[in-house]
Please model this.
Amino acid sequence: MHDDVANESRFQERIDSGEKIEPRDWMPERFRHQLIRMISQHAHSEIVGMLPEGNWITRAPSLRRKMALLAKVQDEAGHGLYLYSAAETLGVSREDLIDQLLDGSAKYSSIFNYPTLTWADVGVIGWLVDGAAIVNQTMLAKSSYGPYARANLRICKEENFHKKQGFEIVATLAAGTTEQRSMVQDAVDRWWWPSLMMFGPHDNDSPNTAELMRWGVKRRSNDDLRQHFVNITIPQAKAVGITIPDPELRYNEESGDWEFGAIDWDEFYRVIKGNGPCNAERMKARRSAHDDGRWVREAAAAYASRDTVAAEE
Ligand code: BYC
Model:
């Protein structure tokens, strides 16, 4: 008991002095548990996040667009792999984490439960969804847990390319025909509010934020990051003539913030409880991809055990 108290205060001192916690270091069980929850949710989001955009690979309007989208969706798979590996350093198996996704007990980001109705959605996802993810993950790249911080550093570099390819699609459509302009505006109208929800509930309604900030896992709160995202995104929308679907949006000269209207939290909780527009479809697609990939996992495991047997002989 005495040891635990001493360990815990040493642990907090290390965090407060900006040291990274590494896999073999002592850590409170609750810290381990919170990181597994958060990193695995993040990994699942990357993998499920491949689905809405993956739907458009065969329908991309040119070879150049197809190559960029293909590379982006493939990058998301890579992000999932870095993150599952980071979670495994905490003593949990990848198989167990995947089972939790497939049986519905683990969450993934609310944003991927919305449909991609037109090509403009691909641009808007890159611009807004990857844009929001970069804001969040730039902060997580400074997280106190070493493997998670390093995974996010690498992810952010790739997400910057994703955001640029999305914004370029948006800018091209926004400068196009009347039909193209209304298609991209319609996509922004549908994705704007769900993008703000990506940052999670308001700080006062967020059960995990205070603890995660005390441990340096999160360095900034949900509301703080959401405001930063709005502040950097409004000038980008203005630059290409896109209207943000919020009549209450106002610039506050004193604070330098773009103040925005109320978020529909009923919708947010409905989506994270599994009742969003595409939750069932996404889980069905993930389960069938998992079943289809069974032979690959079995072949890889058989190949690996053959090497072990050969090494022992
Ligand atoms: N969606 O106490 P709170 C990408 C849950 S993928 C679903 O504030 P916390 C990309 C939360 O889990 C980027 N659930 O939680 C990929 C908690 O429930 P549990 C994904 C949400 O952890 C492909 C409860 O609500 N990024 O970029 O302090 C293509 C209370 O919330 C959401 C990450 O996953 C949500 N939006 O903060 C394109 C980043 N928000 O678990 C792009 C890593 C909240 O207690 N995660 N919940 O049952 C985080 O930064 C934080 O976990 C969150 C939530 C900000 C999401």
